[in-house]
Write a structure and sequence with these properties.
The protein is of the alpha+beta class. Helices cover 41% and strands 27% of the residues.
Length: 82
């Protein structure tokens, strides 16, 4: 599956992981489990989670923690692939 195909499939995905004021640590295990079952997972970064940094930075950090690839980041939503 190439990057363009991943982006097309990600368009129709529902958000299944929300990162809030508890930060990235609170969702790492859940995201890892979801990526074990699904190849693509959509993550939403709430305002409290962003706290002065960009969604791209937070998404890249989260992708690194779960050994995944950041497919796309738009607004406050990111799609990860493994």
């Amino acid at each position: 599956m190439d990057i363009e195909e991943r982006k097309r499939k990600a368009h129709d995905l529902d958000v299944t992981v929300w990162v809030g004021k508890s930060g990235l640590e609170a969702v790492v295990d859940e995201l890892d489990d979801q990526l074990s079952n699904e190849k693509l997972v959509k993550v939403k970064f709430l305002r409290a989670a962003r706290a002065g940094s960009s969604t791209d930075d937070k998404a890249a950090d989260l992708a690194e923690r779960v050994n995944a690839e950041l497919v796309d980041s738009r607004g406050h939503t990111a799609v990860l692939y493994r």
